[in-house]
Amino acid sequence: xxxxxxxxxxxxxxxxxxxxxxxxxxxxxxxxxxxxxxxxxxxxxxxxxxxxxxxxxxxxxxxxxxxxxxxxxxxxxxxxxxxxxxxxxxxxxxxxxxxxxxxxxxxxxxxxxxxxxxxxxxxx
Length: 124
Hints:
124 residues, mainly alpha, 5 helices, 76% helix
């Protein structure tokens, strides 16, 4: 065994003993904080043990949330004008509302930008 390996081995042993000491101190502090109830570390890591939610409760909450979001969505649609609602209903690409004129304008702008860039590269 080389000196370097021996040094690494000793450093590991020292760090492991320090880790054990620190975790003992943490457990003591946690017990003091909780009133010294004699809790172990495993019971402290799972505070919700025994408080599970039944499938029926989960379904009830999910239904309530779906209802709430539907009401919110309907309120937003009502706030929009009837023309906006028709546009949304007719649009085959849901969410994509860029018009042909907007596409043309973007295309022209990009063509100009690239032309300027090419001119600048030729000049340099």
